[in-house]
Amino acid sequence: MTSSSASLFKVLGHVERSAILKQLMTTQATLSQLGVTFRKTPAHIRHHLKVLEQAGLVEFVEARPVQGGPEKYYRATQRALLIHQAVLPDGPKGKLGVVIGSIDPGLTELAARQPKSFFVRLLPLSSLDSLIALRQGLCDMSACHLLDPQSGQYNRSFVRHLFPSQPMALLQVYRREEGFIVPPSNPLRLRSVEDLAQPQIRLVNREPGSGVRQWLDCHLQQLGLSPTQISGYAHVVQSHRAVAQAIQSGQANAGIGLATSAKEFGLEFIPLYEEPYEIVMPRATTTERRYAPFFDYFHSGEFRATLRHLEGYVVPQRSGEIDIIQ
User: Fold this and answer.
1) pTM score > 0.85 for this model?
2) CATH number of 178-274
């Protein structure tokens, strides 16, 4: 092992640092927020953040004005996400392991329940970054929900662009409802994307490459609205839960996310659109016998039961069907 590798494993081997890094893989946070999460002083957290920064695993994102001075927000770097994939532990013996890029409450439920014949590992990446990770061989499959504004289709044009000479496949999984997440009773009466330009709206946005960000940018362009007209457009978090957390904590009063995230944090949900959630893979994967239990699972009643309690999720009849993209 090289000295640099030894130093990296020493950084990751510290229990508290590892926990802080995992938290920053899910959402951006400040010293104060991390202190509350881990019940430690900001000075204690600052020491570990400095070590993680020096190792290239955590980076400063932005400073936001608050009473008493600006607060700095940090997040995990792309390097941290790739290392996370490289050091994934072995799964249970006798089970097929499937690594999927992108995290979603439905897939999280699947990973937590660990069906008998296979197990799932999830990488905390946006849809676009997940497709890139798939192209680089860092995961077996990529979950995806990216809207092409020209065709109105989801995912297909992005797959063709990133895999121009390779036959690919899309596994139909489920449909899910996206909409505005706002404080209870929707006090600002937010109803449409046009309303985001109101001066009293403070948006919390998703990161570039995410399906929500793609959808929002498409609709802002169609309406002739500039991102500079939206207060909070640059306030970015990396998950649906983080959107809901930001609104619950008062950092923002509007965001686009999942109905299940709004319900989890006791917030109001205003439906905007329904989208297909699909899993992308090389076409050759669909003919490998070892993956058969994974594909069969999406036809099963067990899969439908897993998602039954998730607000805004629908499992269509086509769940488990595979479309080939030449």
Assistant:
1) no
2) 3.40.190.10
